[in-house]
Amino acid sequence: MYALLKPEHRLVRQLAREFAEKEVKPLAATLDEEERFPVETIPKLFKYGFFGAAYPESEGGEGGDSLAYVIALEEISKVCATTGVIYSVQAGLGMGLFAKYGTPEQKEKYQKGAFTDKLVCFALTEPGVGTDASNVQTVAVKDGDDYILNGTKMFITTAGQAEWYIIIAVTDRAKKNNGMTAFIVHKDAPGFSVGKHEKKMGIRGSATCELILKNVRVSKDDILGKEGQGLKMALASLDSGRMGIATQALGIAQGAIDETIRYVKERKQFGKRISQFQNTQFKLAELQTKVDAGRMLVWRCAMLKDAGLPYGKEAAMAKLYNSDVANLVTRECVQLSGGYGYTREYPMERMMRDAKITEIYEGTSEAQKMVISRAIGVK
Ligand SMILES: Cc1cc2nc3c(=O)[nH]c(=O)nc-3n(C[C@H](O)[C@H](O)[C@H](O)COP(=O)(O)OP(=O)(O)OC[C@H]3O[C@@H](n4cnc5c(N)ncnc54)[C@H](O)[C@@H]3O)c2cc1C
Hints:
alpha+beta, 10 helices, about 15% strand, 10 strands, single chain, Butyryl-Coa Dehydrogenase, subunit A, domain 1, four-stranded antiparallel sheet, 3 domains, Butyryl-CoA Dehydrogenase, subunit A, domain 3, Butyryl-CoA Dehydrogenase, subunit A, domain 2
């Protein structure tokens, strides 16, 4: 399959794989164990241009495309899902919103830094608002040329580490879904603070925090896109976000298979390597087939996006399928590795814990089924 890729995509894969093996993998278990943010690796992701992989050189990117991005993201996620989600949220959500909706001034002020050293958060979810995103409670009230924001956001990836926060808030409740707006808030804005840091089952090195907004003043110049279009923009950007999480799930699954193949070729029982049992061979053959099918769904999304075509249904399908496969694959890989696979001496148990979130964030699997069923006309 990789043989079908253009030389530039094969090169991206090789470089990303080398980077992942050398810089990301050695830290993965420690980040999980210590539940700490990869402060060593993120500056290197900036330095080597990973975040800009799919953005034009004229804007500060590397001049690649979405296919290059998902190829790189799979390689990173194969060895560390924590680093994978940070990469995906930055490149797929935050930077995607700046690129699509930012004014030239905003691109200069925010997007440039997002290529070089500044992380960006995307904050839609609230304590009482998850799948039903239309029910946002954070409010933005006009005050001259500014808006005053009040509310609480929940479960925000990279919170506390980011420079900029894209906050979805209600500007006109009467307009319902057309009454929400995206605001860019700086980390040091008076009244803005990062609250509780969640302790999680997996992706434990990524920061997931509450955001508290108490009378935060934001200039109208820091509205991203048009007033009232915030929810629409947020949902559209989730297409790209979902392609990223589908890729993260794909990487987790492939990483688990790769580790398990290494293990079963070493471990002996009944005088044979475990890899010599037909059960092991058939199981891994089935799992790899599913992972390859998932990769095709991810690449289809990337190709549609690169062609400028709609890919919302395809992104939902890629996420639904790959997250399901990642959970199945990692569970089976722990099983194939027996008791050792259950311990933290091997990465399979971490991968199994990491896989679960891919069925939840950027829309649960049930939410993906809503998107797909609507798109195929089932009412
Ligand atoms: C680690 C982590 C990182 C995250 N990062 C971010 C981030 O950076 N930015 C951000 O804005 N959000 C983020 N989120 C939030 C995430 O997107 C939400 O958790 C997710 O969308 C689900 O919302 P919820 O948790 O409120 O679940 P709920 O909406 O309460 O859903 C609970 C269950 O009910 C089901 N359900 C809900 N409605 C329906 C329905 N109509 N039909 C059938 N089933 C339904 C769901 O599928 C799910 O199984 C993150 C969450 C986590 C855990």
